[in-house]
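Weekly sync notes, structure subgroup
Attendees: PM, AL, DS (notes)

Item 1: joint prediction request from the bench team. They want all three components modeled as one assembly rather than separately. Inputs as received:
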Amino acid sequence: MKHALLEIDGLSVDLLGRQRGDGLRRVIHDVSLTVASGESVGLVGESGSGKSMTTKAVMGLLPRGARANGALRYHGQDISGYNRKELSAYRAKQIAMIYQDPRAHTNPLVKIGDFLIEGVVAAKLMSRADARERAHDLLQSVGITDAGRRMVQYPHELSGGLLQRVMIVMALMSSPSLILADEPTTALDVTVQSEVVAILAEQIRDRSLGMLFITHDLDLAAAISDSLAVMYAGAIVENGSVKAIYDSPRHPYTAGLLASRPSLHEVKRLQAIPGRPLSAFEVAGGCAFASRCPLASQRCLDERPVMREVDGREVACHHPQNVELPTRRPA
Amino acid sequence: MTAVPVSGVRLARISTAARRIDPILATAGVVCALLVLLAIAGPWIAPFPPNQTDVLAASQGPSATHLLGTDSIGRDILSRLLAGARLSFLGPGIIVVLSTTLGTLFGIACAWWGGFVDSMLTKAFNVLFAIPGILMALVAAAVFGAGFWAAVLSLSLVYVPYVARVIRSAALQERRRPYVEACQLAGMSGLRICSRHVFGNVQPVVVAQATVGFGSALMDFGAASFLGIGVQPPQAEWGLMVSDGRTELLNGALQQSLSAGALIVLSVVAFNVLGERLSDRTGAGR
Amino acid sequence: MSENILELRNLRKVFAARSAGMSAGIVAVDDVSFDVVRGSSLGIVGESGSGKTTTARIIAGLETAAAGTLDIGGESVDMSRRFNRGPSTLQMVFQDPFGSFDPRQRIGAAIDELLRIGTRLDRTARRARVADLLEQVGLNASHAEELPRNLSGGQRQRAAIARALALRPRILILDEAVSALDVSVQAQVLNLLADIRRDTEITYLFVSHDLAVIRQISDRCIVMQAGRIVEQGTTAEVLTDPQEEYTKRLLDAVPRPGWKPGRGLAHNGSGT
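Output from the run, pasted for the record:
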């Protein structure tokens, strides 16, 4: 039984409405998820699924006015009770985040080397000299052979892929135990994505880190993760090992996602899910997916399904046994 | 096929718009509206004719008949303030109309054509930016003689680049959106695209800019009259009244200068605040 | 015997050097030639900087080109001028569903405006045509009254397709038209595009970085890299039996069942 690094237990998040006088809008509904050390969990969802908001909650970076319920435990400790100082230390040393757009998260006026060391030096984790050495070594381990040259360059001198590798180094500088990667390769070319994902996987493996990898691409998540959690309208609908979910999904939404993806190998009428992805606050009662689900019954409209174990994974559905398994040719 | 009923979304939007009113913006808006009403109705609600002199009642302090007292030749200060609102607002009004119209035209032209037209116009504007409004008004007064129109036209000219620069920026943003290319591919003329689509979407910026411009114009026009190069005596106008009241300040009679000055300050602040708030909303509203 | 609706030869586009320090400009498109058969669908595949979007934009007439020839429907097109292809010759669907419409204009009014300029239909006839177009793309006639912000991304893209079809163009150029959509919505739009092509004689030029989408939507495809065509052929051949190294690398990099991410696939060895 692996040691649980991160435990999200019944997390619900409401946001204040955009205009004054609007009520609270639910964006995450009762999410429970575990990441063990050395385990990579892929969090998959489309727009409105709440996947980004979940990572913000884990980082303790929910927007002002957000109300969170439920427990968030890191190494067994509840972080929702942390004060500013504790939260700061948690974010500086224990977890690290890699964002989608590296250019938005780097200061164009700061050299790469300075950028990499400023976090750990400010948190008094190591001396400047040690930090520089560490940054240099880490840059080399992610495949940037001319690390010395790169450290004195500015962000605009690096391509998107290179900069994202620098962000991986940035995340590793403080030796965190958990990495949160929020769509880190969505903005990159597919060949660059492959490299960056491979580097990330290697680092996670070599250092026995935990990772929560957020993406909309089920295939990508399956390639890099040990387990998958599929989110829809702010809730997790299916959660289990990659093998179980990817080969035989038991939730109609997961099956629908897999079936609607065009294939490299054949042209066929895509089985599109009708309608569009909803956000948690757009769902009235019952199952969030009912309005788009081919298996929806009256029970689905009335009663919100709870997560239960079916076929070696957890599903939140009233009719998991009727899900048609998609046929896909392997690569 | 959508899950959210379309009519429900529309109703929700109406109610949220109603709740979005910012109290400061509302207050500024009300003050501005009252001032404009004053400018329109001023002469009719004034207790005395503004130019009626009464040398025997000169330089009196506030009393029951003359609520703010009289000036050095016996004219009722309150009536002159109320009547003077008209010119004090008319001048800046024309300045804003002229400069905003020209500035918007130039701004959109720069954004649409780019290239040579843009660089030439921008250079011309840079020259104008270097000239303070009052200086231009002085030159106009020297060349054409001091008066209402000299001040108004010279200030309008100087204000054009400020409007043009802001509109150009907003129009450039609009021009880059894919729908503009879609219109061009459909065979729509540049004129139609600019007037219907680009202008329509920069309109909120134009209104905000005009409002801020009005505040500035109030200052500059009032200053011009104060210096004697704008509205000439015996007409009633606030800037002129501030100047007229200076001799009495030495005698301790503050009424004329102070009240006229206070009205100018109130108007400038109200319009500036209104303009700033509108600017914020057009920026954030995208 | 199907004829070519489009013939492009030796297209070359150089963007002027922006600063005095650069000696030459950027060569965005270099010696690109291909034919498109009437009623078929050509996919243009490439990564960023490949020149695929520039090529499509030049064909559409949104950019000029100094070198090369373009024939559409047998007639020569002057590529040194923009917007001269004709609204009923070709139309375009853009990547960004949000910027595709004037935010202040209702969808129906936007399409109606195009009809007013491009056809001689009277108001009733235009209204009917707007309703037809919306139905054709899977929207309701009532959507004509909606402002763009009240529609979802997928609905906006459908509306953009409806608008592009309004003047009955012979060629429809789609520039990453499904890239900004959620996966489940993307499938709907791809199905729709396939239906439209089946029901009309329209020709597609589909630009995308997504190989699976290209496989789904195009009969033939060209693979571009750094402004040049690396490989071309029927889509099935190119994507299942690639001949060129670059195409193989592209295919190896696509996440799919059983895929493992690999290093050394990207173009630049010392880091990309």
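Discussion: Residues 26 and 257 of chain A are 24 Å apart (CA to CA).
Action: AL to compare against the crosslinking data before next sync.
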